[in-house]
Amino acid sequence: MESLPVEVVGNILSCLGAARDVVIASATCRKWHEAWRNHLHTLTFNPNDWPLYHEYSTSRLEIIITQTIFQTKGLQCLSIIMDDVDEFSAAPVIAWLMYTRETIRQLHYNVRTQPNINMLEKCGRQKLEVLALAHNTITGVEPSYQKFPSLKSLSLSYVSISALDLSLLLNACPKIEYLILISLDIVMSDPQATMDLSSHSLKDVYVEAISLDKFILEADSLEKLHLKDCTLEVFELVGKGMLRFLKIDDVSVIHLDIGESAENLEIVDVSNFTIMWAKFLHMISRSSKLKKLRLWGVVFDDEEEFVDVETISSCFPLLSHLSLNYDLREAALQYGLQGLLERCPHLKKLVIHGVVSETKTHEECHTLANFTSAIVRLMRKYLHVEVQFEYE
């Protein structure tokens, strides 16, 4: 170990990450102490790494973080996750941000402060590539000087921000590729809760626990979209057909439109969702490259609607994975499965989900037995396909 260059020791300490582990390791010898001071580039303060943080007062935590940060030079990745702390004073937080702003590239910051501080103004903007904020308030975004030319990933959780400021912030990040929005407190000046976001560089968007009347996302390069636990009257995606992954999980939406973005879809995963099947199928029917389709816990807006397996096989010949929950009493299912297997030679896995009551009547047992026998006979012809049964 004595022969290791001090820069390599700094990389080793950076791999530890957790502040307490780094401080203890740096006491090994003079070289390790020098590496901590001059070559450490990653530092994390998180109660998950050391539960005793919970026993310290807020002022004591402020002192510990200040002393640790101020003994380093050139920090590139700083993570301060103290969401269970009541409130930090603004002064030490500003000092941490100002001290590291010239070198910082990744900032993960989950701390409440009193009074609230403008994180966008204090953190270093020129080199910052990853910014994750939680439990903060963002107001008055000024894109004329608050530019983030290197930012690729932005995550906002439990943040209070207006729809306009969020739009301006996105415009101030010309290279952004990843956007995560979780439980935002969206401040609206208009009675109608409308959000319009636009970015030419976005590739991956995750939205969770957000309620809006209208959400319009213009993203020409978007490849992955995941909506979870959202309540939306209207969601529209405007793009140039780059979308490959679409996941909708427990979302309430009246009007869903992904426009021309469906042409290159490869994965569609929909669960706990009420849909008009004919409209939804029409929306994704142009996805000739679709490889994985999952429809789980889907409720049809029209009681007469059902998933036509034969139509699926016609529209998506490249399917390799299909997951459906279906009523086993539907006679059309068995015939549809045969058509599906014939028309989708790339299909590798078929998941069949059924609900079996605790008290089973003779008719129910007979239906289940007949269905199972039919599937066994059918699958003898398609041994390359894995069949999985899931019963509740």
Describe this structure in words.
This protein is an alpha/beta fold and 392 residues long. It is 29% helix and 31% strand. The protein contains eleven helices and 23 strands. The strands form four sheets. A 14-stranded parallel beta sheet has the order 1-2-4-6-8-10-13-15-17-19-20-21-22-23. A four-stranded parallel beta sheet has the order 12-14-16-18. The termini are far apart.
Return the structural class. alpha/beta
Q: What's the multimeric state?
A: single chain
Would you tell me the overall average pLDDT? 87
State the distance separating the first and last CA atoms: 57 Å
Anisotropy-based shape: elongated
> Would you count the extended β strands for me?
23
Instruction: Tell me the helix content.
Output: 25-40%
Strand content: 25-35%
Across the major sheet, the strand order is 1-2-4-6-8-10-13-15-17-19-20-21-22-23
What Rg do the Cα atoms give?
Answer: 26 Å
Low-confidence stretches: none
Q: Major sheet: size, sense and barrel closure?
A: 14 strands, parallel
Helical element count? Answer: 11
Short characterization:
It contains eleven helices and 23 strands.
Topology at a glance:
Elements: H1 6-16, H2 19-26, H3 30-39, E1 42-45, H4 58-70, E2 77-81, E3 88-89, H5 90-100, E4 106-110, E5 113-114, H6 119-122, E6 130-134, E7 137-138, E8 153-157, E9 160-162, H7 163-171, E10 178-182, E11 185-187, E12 194-199, E13 204-208, E14 211-219, E15 224-228, E16 231-238, E17 245-249, E18 252-257, E19 267-275, H8 277-284, E20 292-300, H9 309-315, E21 321-325, H10 331-343, E22 349-354, H11 362-379, E23 386-391
Parallel strand pairs: 1-2, 2-4, 3-5, 4-6, 6-8, 7-9, 8-10, 9-11, 10-13, 12-14, 13-15, 14-16, 15-17, 16-18, 17-19, 19-20, 20-21, 21-22, 22-23
Helix pairs in contact: 1-3, 2-3, 4-5, 9-10
